[in-house]
Amino acid sequence: MKPAPFDYRRARSVADALGLLAELGGEAKVIAGGQSLMPMMAFRLARPSHLVDIGGLGELRGLWVDDDGLHIGALTTHHQVETCTDPAVLAGWPVLPASMSWIGHLPIRTLGTVGGSVAHGDALAEWCLLTTLLDAVLVAEGADGRREIPVADFFLGFFTTALLPDELLVEVRFPAPAPHAALTEYAERHGDYAIVSAAVSLDLVDGSLRGGRIALGGVADAPVRVPEAEALLTAGTTHPDELGGVFAAAADAAAAAVDPGDDQHGSADYRRSLVRTLVQRAGVQASVAARAVDDDRPAAVPAGARRRP
Amino acid sequence: MPQGADTDQPDAGHRAPSFGSTGRYVGAAVPRREDPRLVTGRGRFLDDIAVPGMLHAQFVRSTIAHARLLEVDLTAVRALPGVVAAYSAADLALGDITALLDRPLEEFVPTPMPVLSGAPQADGSLGKVRFVGEPLAIVVAADPYLVEDALELARVRYEALPAITSAEGAMAQGAALVHDEAPGNVLVDVSMFATEGIDEVFSDAHTVVEVRSSTGRQNALPLETRGALAEWDERAGQLVLDTCTQVPHQVRTVTAGCLGLAERQVRVRVPDMGGGFGIKCVVGREEIAVAAAAQRLRRPVKWIEDRKDALTASFLAREQQYVARAAFDREGHVLALDADVVCDMGAYSCYPFTAAIEPLMASGEMPSVYRVPAYRVRGRSITSNKAPTAPYRGVSRPQYVMVMERLMERAARVLDLDPVEVRRRNVITTFPYTGVNHITYDPGSYLESLDLAEQTVRDEGWYDVQAAARAEGRFVGIGYSCFSERTGYGSGAFAKRRMKVVPGFDISEIRMDLSGTVTVTTGTQSHGQGHETTMAQIVADKLKLDVADVRVEQGDTDRVLYGWGSFASRSAVIGGSAVGAAAGKLEVKLRELAAHLLGTRPEVLELRDGGVRPIPHAGDGVPPEGLSFTQLADVAYLKSHLLAKETDPGLSAVASFDVAGDGTFSNATHACVVELDPGTGGTRILRYVCVEDCGVAINPPIVEGQARGGIAQGIAGALFEQVSYDANGEPSCASFLDYKVPTAWETPDVLIKHLETPCLFTETGAKGAGEGGTIGAPAAVLNAVNDALRPTGVELDDTPIRPEVVHRSLQVTRSAAHGSAA
Ligand SMILES: Cc1cc2nc3c(=O)[nH]c(=O)nc-3n(C[C@H](O)[C@H](O)[C@H](O)COP(=O)(O)OP(=O)(O)OC[C@H]3O[C@@H](n4cnc5c(N)ncnc54)[C@H](O)[C@@H]3O)c2cc1C
After folding, report:
1. From CA B204, how far away is CA A108, in angstroms rounded?
2. Residue A291: pLDDT band by 50, 70, 90 thresholds?
3. Inter-chain touch B743–A277, beta carbons under 8 Å
4. Chain B residues within 8 A of A41 when measuring between CB atoms
5. Sheet of strand A196-205, all strands in order from the earlier edge strand to the far edge
6. Does residue A282 form part of some domain?
7. Which residues in chain B touch residue A267, judged by CB atoms under 8 angstroms apart?
8. Are residues A36 and A102 in the same domain?
9. Which residues of B touch A (CB under 8 A)?
10. Which of B44, B104, B349, B574 is exposed most, by the fewest CB atoms within 10 A?
11. Is residue A34 assigned to a domain?
12. What phi-psi label fits residue A301: left (phi over 0), alpha (psi between -120 and 50 degrees) or beta?
């Protein structure tokens, strides 16, 4: 459990990092928090020739809200998101800080980064689920400058993303606020990767449910949306009884729509059952959060969005 | 939700030690003297030790579960710059590690375990590999990273054979043989007791219940993995082997044997240890290979097992299958027990216990705390292409207790009786009690612990919680387990198992120095339990010393004549009695010396306040201050001309202790309350109560720590941990991602209550306390889950209890319930 030999380079800027990646070629790898890469290197499942350490790039660290939505710098740690007190973030995207406690354990969250999580592309990672749920935009920077990749085009399969080897993921952007959203999951131990995870975001307008999004982890090689179930997310009220029925129907539809595989952590049938349970629970949690929000805030996005400090 | 009493309050109260020692320390919460160094990072564990010129070793290991070895080519390994040496089995030509029983071949087939596999055989072949992870060569290099680069360069060629990965597979007709000498892959097959007329008892009984149960393979998982640092000491002419073992002398004996050295040429030392739980009470192959490499190279060589190897290539335990039947009368009295136990012991027998350790423990002790009039058992060990096994905390008792407790619960269900009441009708209440298994049980509090546990659960309101939950359609269950645990196996008990190497006694040497303070040796080996504190408490009481003036020395084979280390909850019982006996001898010497110097008889003197003083009203004309220990030591060492002619200089004594009969039984009742989540099948523990009796608790917080840690490991077995293998024998748990050791999140707080039935023959009245927690927990959890499942009619008998299985069970019934409600 010791990594194969590698060289280590520390990047001084994004440009420097990109230069190093171009210079060192395809066997070089970026290291951010190291919480996924280091274990893989210790098992020699990853054998980069060089590590380009971007950990010192303060410019990639932080969250801010503007007219384009919520920006999260790639190097922002899970823990920074978890402990974020910015009212604009809490009003528009409360699901993000609330979901962080599902990621591993505290020491991992203080080192692991949002960008690392998304770039790593683990189908069970909370950030992969949240970006899928909320139609995030992944901002990559390469030698030719920046490009924006919609999440729908980003996760290509098992640990595979649209990011090119010489590109850096610099930012994760959530264009639209999602004040009524929740993520829940099931694993045997706290802090484990989920067997199945589910996230739901609801569009609530004037006391009625006008639509929503459902994303699932643990049922395919990458997080998936389930349009068949999302289509059922309509209701004329936000009364718990009626919403309960809506979520139950959506949960059944989601369970029917997915085609999970078997492995030692759970059979396909079990995973489908978990989808049913968790979609229902995430739906209820999202609507509960919604009622709390609706009570004292008619408009979820604060005007005069804050610029990055 | 009811709240339990403060868990840290021992409500039953510790009775003043009612037996043996009457001092101020035994029974008191003396702070662990180990803790300051351990919690401030000043402990010294194996991997903290670095010596000049030290090299680092790792092992080329088999990547195939079962194969004929065709070639182990280390040419490229040796060519890598920085590699100092690479030795295959052929290069080292070491003796095997052979654990034996004195039993006929029909009962026990010996399976020698080579230090490295791949030695040239008589027929010219290189023999076989028998599990993934089996060591084939040791590679020594300048740094621990480089050595792993080197491992990748080894070229090993195999001719694969079918892998045996289950007991059924092992015993199937025509199955491949793991060891050619073991037909049917059976290493151990013993049939015992077979009370006359047992079949009639079964056929005539009002009720017969059956439990088929299987338990998962587990890893004892000490936080500190295994390791060794060996160095040849030219001055001493000795191989010095620092290793984290529970049994330093056994490591010495086997190392000397494998290397062809005399025992005096091997010195085993043990630093601070981060746990062992049994995995380190057997002699491993790697430490001997490390010793051999250091001897060859005349340079220090260190090996620290990494977590992947610890999870896949170390010793495992616990994979057993039971088919057990019990006959009951109408009132729920058990009439007979018939059991068939199959243990999957993996690839080899461990030293010194052999592959018989699990079946012999299960067969010998299964009747547990119950009056079972008729008993028959067959115990088998099969060999498979999995990592070998070692005795893990509890050894078979977690499993057979679970099966016994399932039988009790099942009988209660069939007879429509309360399960606690059924136990009450069957537990042994008069002592000593000699069971159908020919074991004599010393006094315990079986019934009292059961009553107190149930009362506690009732008083805390959990039965009301359960009733309310059921009314709402939720699944809350309450489960119990009642058991005893033989602790302090003496040589007699191990001889009954017919081991060729018979553990049992412990010897202590005690010395008083010029400062009037003492050092005592123990052959037991703390691997985290705090022996430096508890042994000192015993000695301090005996010699009326301040506990700070007693130093406990362990873990050095040059300092301790011979010892059996720590396992089977023997340290307080046997080691504690040996240090007490040594202190007792020194006490006599001190009184004799003082009597000589004071011109009186020893009988009128006693030890008091750091010296030998006249007994009030008996010390006829002796100066009331007597002589202090420093005054006596001054004479014994510096003025020996003043000693009586027949008295040797110095102040020391040696004493030993062994258990004469069947040992002493600790006992406990555990109670567990769970709630099941129908949406996920998850089990949440709402409450855990442990009423335990280990006789006199020498140090109550240490006893509670043992109970808590043990319960955590028992819950791990009940709900989480399982080492699994694929059909090719490839282990699928190489990291904690897959081997689901529970964390603090999953481990409940535990309410511990104490009862005290002192042991009648130990120095302090103490019984062993090391394993009980682990033994009781699986049964309590499984019974609680079954109680929660009660509305569904489903009963589960296997562990670990998989959420998926619970979920499926709940689905079945929910549809059934819907049907009947309609
Ligand atoms: C015990 C444990 C439990 C965990 N549990 C969870 C969990 O429950 N849920 C979960 O989501 N995660 C979990 N993780 C993983 C953790 O969240 C990681 O932090 C995260 O997946 C990767 O972030 P990182 O910064 O550590 O990335 P690194 O490990 O440094 O890198 C991961 C990969 O991403 C690439 N990369 C990193 N940053 C960039 C970038 N800016 N641009 C391009 N490529 C980049 C690297 O080259 C590498 O391939 C766990 C980790 C551990 C050790």
Report:
1. 62
2. low
3. no
4. none
5. A181-186, A196-205, A208-217, A224-225
6. yes
7. 804
8. no
9. 144-145, 148-149, 152, 306-308, 679-682, 719-720, 724, 732, 734-735, 737-738, 740, 742-743, 745-746, 803-804, 807-808, 811
10. B104
11. yes
12. beta
pLDDT for residue B408: 98
Q: What is the pLDDT of residues B502-547, one digit of tens each?
A: 999 999 999 999 999 999 999 999 999 999 999 999 999 999 999 9
Domain limits of chain B?
395-488+662-811, 505-657
Ligand 1 centroid distance, CA of A230 (Å) = 29
Domain shared by A47 and A62, yes or no: no
ipTM beyond 0.90?
Answer: yes
Q: Rounded distance, CA B597 to CA B614, Å?
A: 13
What is the whole-number distance in angstroms between the Cα of residue A76 and the centre of ligand 1?
12
A270 vs B contacts (CB less than 8 Å):
681, 804, 807-808
Render pLDDT for A21-74 as a digit per residue (tens, 0 to 9): 999 988 999 999 999 999 999 999 999 999 999 999 999 999 999 999 999 999
Please judge whether A267 and B720 are an interchain contact, meaning their C-beta atoms are less than 8 angstroms apart: no
Say if residues B68 and B159 touch (Cβ distance below 8 Å).
Answer: yes
Cα(A35) to ligand 1 centroid in Å equals 5
Contact (CB<8Å) B308/A43: yes
- Check residue B618 and give its pLDDT: 78
Rounded-to-integer distance, Cα B467 and Cα B463, Å: 6
Instruction: Give the distance from residue B345's alpha carbon to the nearest chain A alpha carbon, in angstroms.
Output: 23
Do A232 and A140 share a structural domain?
A: no
| Cα–Cα–Cα angle for B494, B496, B499, rounded to 5 degrees | 55
Residues in A whose CB is inside 8 Å of some CB of B read 1-5, 39, 43-44, 105, 186, 188-193, 264, 266-267, 270, 273-274, 276-278, 280-281
Give distance in angstroms: CA of B162 to centre of ligand 1: 39
Cis peptide before B800 (omega within 30 of 0): yes
Helix (H) or strand (E) segment spanning residue B690:
strand B683-693
Of B679, B735, B746, the CB nearest to A277: B679
**DSSP letter (8 states) at residue A179:** S
Q: Measure CB to CB from residue A186 to each of B144, B148, B680 and give the nearest one.
A: B680
Q: What pLDDT digit, counting tens, does each position of B147-171 carry?
A: 999 999 999 999 999 999 999 999 9
In this structure, is residue A166 part of a structural domain?
Answer: yes
Q: Say if residue A299's pLDDT is above 50.
A: no
Could you report the per-residue pLDDT of B641-679, keeping only the tens digit for each? 999 999 999 999 999 999 988 999 999 999 999 999 999
| Global confidence as pTM | 0.95
Domain that holds residue A37: 7-53
Architecture of domain B395-488+662-811: 2-Layer Sandwich (3.30)
Residues of chain B with pLDDT under 50: 1-21, 817-822
Residue found by looking up tokens 């199955």 in the block: B175
Which domain-ending residue is among A122, A152, A174? A174
If one counts the domains in chain A, the total is: 3
Amino acid at B165: T
CA atoms of B668 and B774, how far apart (whole Å) = 11
**Residue of B710, B740, B727, B729 whose CA lies nearest to B313:** B729
CB contact under 8 A, A188 and B808: no
Residue B40 to residue B29: CA distance in whole angstroms: 21
Q: pLDDT band at residue A289, thresholds of 50, 70 and 90? A: low
Q: What is the pLDDT of residue B344?
A: 98
The predicted structure's pLDDT at residue B497: 87
- pLDDT over threshold 70, residue A292: no
**Does the structure show a pLDDT above 70 at A256?**
yes
pLDDT (0 to 100) of residue A290 = 57
